[in-house]
Structures
1.
Amino acid sequence: MQVEVIEPHGMCAGVNGAIARALELAKSRPAGDRSPIYCLHELVHNEIVIGELKDLGFRFVDRIGEVPRGATVVFSAHGVPPQVREEAARRGLKVVDATCPFVARVHRSARAFAEKGMEVCVLGDPAPAEVRGIVGEVEDAGGRAFVGPHGVSAAKAKGGAAPLGVVAQTTMNSDEVERAVAELARARRVKTMAKVCGATKDRQDAVRRFCRGAGPGAGVLVLGSKTSSNTRRLAEVAEDCGAKVFTAGDVEGLSRLDFSGVGRLGVTSGASTPERFFMEAMRFLRRVPEHVAIIMDGNGRWAKARGKARSEGHRAGAKTLERVLDWCGERGIRYLTVYAFSTENWKRPKAEVDGLMALFARMLKTKERDFVANRVRFRMVGRRGDLSPKLLSIVESLERKTEAFERQLIVAISYGGRAEIVDAANAAVARGEQVTEETFRRHLYAPDVPDPDLVIRTSGECRVSNFLLWESAYSEYWFTDTLWPDFSEADFDRALESYAARDRRRGGA
Ligand code: IPE
Ligand code: IPE
Ligand code: MG
């Protein structure tokens, strides 16, 4: 079975923002404070996320009346009606509003219609919190709302000269919304404003594109919780396109699926599904390494062969890295560690070293938006004290801003495998520790990152050059003559294919 990632998929900005707010709140509690943080409804519709928040002390309630006076309450990403806001104020609750900005926009549109005296048709399923919030907004403005499929019929039947305002739940099937709007427009004058949000539509369109390209008999695997409306819509879209649809909320569910007979499988995930589950699923379906490390070598020779300055080779190499980071995302590889500058590279001419440091600073500054948009966590490994204060502050600011993301790019700067081991040993000595392999590991630069499964080196050199000496004890190696700036997607896939075919015995028989 050929497994393909459907892009875009997964968490949207609204969900990401809501989770980040909740995590920030948990972190800001004084040490030892175990009082619950209340959340009205599930923050986002995903069991993995909810389970983790419960572990952090979140308590989920269905009614604002269940929150004790004076406590902190988070409004979920789906939004709340104004009546709930008022009740929260009356009860003296501290409110943290995690409403998705697109849902908030639908509220504003619905309210604006109602304030003009228009009736409002809210497309969507009447039950979910999101729709109840929008309806509450219309009613608060003294308006009348028609809701759900019955609402469409009632709004049509009513006719009349006054225009009807139409808004939609942000996670609806965009085709269905268009059909409903067309149906209403045949019966009466309609005005539409906020409809399905861009992230929902883009994910649904990507599934439609995959199904068209893959032809009949293709399968689509949708990852996410049953409670998630946008996840269910993705499955519906795939079904409408004639695909065989599979759904799973966790790895256990995934392991129960039977894909026999499927030639091509597209994988997508809902806007509330954590990326780490998506990547876990990819590793389950294909033998994709969880962690790839690369010795990006050959920039100088690439430049020399073209009669260019070495600095141009480094610039071209930086572009290759951007591409490789995307390829990792598309293949479900969670960690990418790259060797950018070794402890030995300080020996190079000052102009080259200065040029490289300036290139790192520029890259990290200009790419900040991409890291956030693509939900990639940036971190540095290496001797931080060797960096200029300016570069270090850029590094650490980007680390802080991307801390919550699950996919990671780890850049080794002023890094040496021996230096890392020595630094870890000194940290252990300073604490008076008698080390074991397990306790020693805790002093490494990125102790929580699993060892690399695959180490790639470009440019024909078959040596380790002081890279990840501790961590690569059982890594698979793959060498290519290609110089780093020329490293292509086909090269990358060859390395991954080679990895997938290897038998990793780790000393076993
Ligand atoms: C790797 O390319 C990049 C760094 C070490 C910073 P090189 O600069 O080592 O290129 P070659 O090996 O001289 O071709
Ligand atoms: C290793 O490459 C370091 C990086 C890629 C950053 P080098 O080019 O510095 O290593 P040697 O000199 O070939 O061993
Ligand atoms: Mg080199």
2.
Amino acid sequence: MSTDRLTEAFTAVHRGRPEGVWAAPGRVNLIGEHTDYNDGFVLPIALPHTARAAVRRREDDVLRLHSAQAEGGVVELTPDQLVPGTVESWAKYPAGVVWALREAGHAVGGADIHLDSDVPTGAGLSSSAALECVVATAFNDLWDLGLGPVELGLLAQRAENGFVGVPCGAMDQLASTCCEAERAMFLDTRSLSARQLPVDLAAAGLRLLVIDTRVKHDLADGAYAERRSGCEKAAALLGLTALRDLAPDGLDAALATLPDDGLRSLTRHVVTENARVEAAVEALVKGDPAALGPILTAGHASLRDDFLVSCAETDLVVEVALAAGALGARMTGGGFGGSVIALVTEDGADGVADAVTAAFAEAGLTAPRIFTALAAQGAHRLS
Ligand code: ADP
Ligand code: MG
């Protein structure tokens, strides 16, 4: 949607004109799943799909929030309503950012905000982070806060943890604020140091398909918290700050000291997944993106068999995509539904997409949404 249309929509809702228009993307993570809350490595790209915000500061401290994707019109929030746990609706995402900014001591006032997003929601592509990051970026500019993309991403994560109540790691928000066009971001979630690595799949005759299964199973949220606390327990038993501190060559010895299979398999996933991120980085640095294929597929097996966060629909996509010639495929995002990524050849892309669509029809499932992922730029001002 053009900024003109966003401005018009703002005017229809709030009257007058916005002071500017901002965009922040959703993301797909190439590899490094469930590693961000273990101080580990991730390798996301930003998607061309973005949340956009038209914003105007107000004289008072009131927030007036509107989204083209939400029912119910404008949500108005006074400062005393910006308390964690009080905002139930979708508005908790943008409101949480304002809360986090004020908590961090930034004297930001009220605003009229119109949001519009084409990031699919609940598909593991971080529509929530996009919404948070676009508001954080707009407020940074409008109040001249001078915050960089890492600080903005961390504030957005704080909003999701502390206000929305989702105990997510920092990957989604940092991907949305920090990623660069045509690059994958190799991020160390402990040191927050990032390397932007060129990904030119087209030059290698390749494409990355995102296949949104359009399923999200109810246990997703509870299971996420459970996996996270399991990882923290395993690290504590091993005397480590985080599972990130366990090197692959110490894995077997460490596993032998853990008390049960559940903790052993969580630990095995995190340690092998961090190693897969490093292998993927090596493939990109060497300019050999085809080598990502088996790394993705091994990552899926680990999420399915060790971390136990896959589900029938994502397993079906991976299996069918591989049978139809994909070089590699894996579920991406938290799990229990959401999206799968498949690395395919240019020539084989349609065949893989058709095979997955046919398999879903045969299984009586809603048709998946399939698109090609291009590495786009992180949050920025549009006008
Ligand atoms: P994901 O981040 O993977 O898309 P989440 O469950 O974390 O999934 O976030 C999805 C939620 O974010 C939606 O249920 C909705 O509350 C909110 N959201 C995302 N995009 C929008 C939007 N454009 N307008 C209103 N709410 C949105
Ligand atoms: Mg989310």
